[in-house]
Design brief:
elongated, alpha/beta, Rossmann fold, 5 strands, about 150 residues
Length: about 150
């Protein structure tokens, strides 16, 4: 059984997330998704729109996902989750700002050199990211207000 791990925030779940998880699942037999802890989201991106438990439940409800867990808070090293998940593959999203070489090097250093790191392809859709969706909503809202005036 080949175990795949995918990681992400998954705030405002959208087609790009589903595409990422479908591709991640295709790399093995079982997909575990690590949903970012709220404090990690606050520190690295923004205030989460939805809380970590709701994001975890929504991700776990997606067909490709076998298991979803909440990641460690930011004061715990990210690689500390590996003994719990026991992945054979770590799937990175096309737009995730992780450097594959740095991850591979750290895995080797920690004795997890057998874990493959694979970046999946993006979705060729103009609304494949949360920021793009928010920008589109704001644009439509602005156009609507202008036409109402």
């Amino acid at each position: 059984m080949k175990r795949v791990m995918a990681v992400g925030v998954f705030d405002l779940l959208h087609a790009g997330h589903l595409h990422y998880l479908e591709q991640a699942k295709s790399l093995g037999d079982a997909l575990t998704v690590v949903v970012a802890h709220d404090d990690t989201v606050r520190m690295r991106k923004h205030e989460p729109v939805t809380g970590q438990e709701l994001r975890r439940r929504m991700v776990e409800g997606l067909k490709p996902v076998d298991n979803a867990i909440i990641g460690n808070p930011p004061d715990v090293p990210i690689f500390d989750i590996l003994p719990e998940v026991k992945p054979d593959v770590i799937a990175l999203g096309y737009d995730q700002e992780h450097a594959e070489d740095r991850i591979r090097s750290k895995l080797e250093q920690l004795g997890h050199g057998h874990i493959q790191v694979i970046r999946v392809e993006g979705l060729s859709d103009d609304l494949d990211g949360t920021r793009k969706i928010i920008a589109r909503i704001l644009q439509l809202s602005s156009q609507s207000k202008e036409s109402d005036a």
